[in-house]
Amino acid sequence: MTDIEHAAPRRRLPVFTGILVLIALAILISLGTWQVQRLYWKEGLLADIAARQAASPVPLADIEAMAATGGDIEYRKVTATGRYINNEERHFFATWRGQTGFYVYTPLELADGRTLFVNRGFVPYENKEPEMRMQGQLTDQQTVTGLARSKLPGKPSWVVPDNDVVKNIFYWKDLDVMAESVGLDKARVIPFFVDADSTPNPAGLPIGGVTQVDLPNDHLQYAFTWYGLAAVLIVVVALSWFRKGAKAAAQ
User: Is 230 domain-assigned?
Assistant: First the structure.
């Protein structure tokens, strides 16, 4: 075999390696740039949510109109007036400030006969049953101010337990089942929830204002990670080429 035949594979190998390095570098930089774009998007979203929560409340009809046209109603401040149907409240398993208990979802009967499910707030586990907090069972006409919350399209994840309708324990907020379980006509139920604000209830229960905006914003960290890996790759390749050049010069 001639020297030319030996040299050909050696020349092809560095070229192939260089192509792989460029592809890997392009992927790492693209991932870092994508995370930066996600960072700007997430910061804008959080700012928008903060602005909605700080805004003055609007009538329920305005949120209904927005929802009907596909608008984003999430976390918009709203006010509604009606009568709580206390004997039909539904209980959503939750924790609040380290304590286990339930969010109390109570149907609010509006003047036109329709129903709005209101998350009135948190009660400790031992106060699940209404007779353990009778003072907080508001009667007559009430006006509630809170944040609109969209109806979930389905079970959030397979790891979430199925709702136990018989025991009135919900592990995910299935509005249709909540309505059906107390005999309400879905067509007469407002297609979203309202989380009541922190206005105190008699005897302190339920505890309102429990809405949690849990939107992690780790995109900057991820961007640094991808860009850092790209920088490391460049350094490793540069050192490898430098050592090969030094070795060749010494021969």
Answer: yes
Q: Is 208 part of a structural domain of the chain?
A: no
Are the C-beta atoms of residues 105 and 117 closer than 8 Å to each other?
A: yes
Is 91 within 8 Å of 178 (Cβ atoms)? Answer: no
Query: Are 167 and 105 contained in the same domain?
Result: yes
Q: Are residues 131 and 225 in the same domain?
A: no
- 108 and 181 in one domain? yes
How confident is residue 237, by pLDDT bands cut at 50, 70 and 90? confident
pLDDT in tens, 72-84: 999 999 999 999 9
Contact 92, 100 (CB under 8 A): no
Q: Which domain holds residue 100?
A: 76-196
pLDDT single digits (tens) 160-169: 999 999 999 9
The pairs formed by 87-93 with CB atoms below 8 angstroms and a separation of 24 or more are 87/130, 88/182, 88/184, 89/120, 89/130, 90/117, 90/168, 90/170, 90/178, 90/181, 90/182, 91/128, 91/168, 91/169, 91/170, 92/119, 92/170, 92/171, 92/173, 93/169, 93/170, 93/171
Q: Which two tokens stand for residue 67?
A: 């929802």
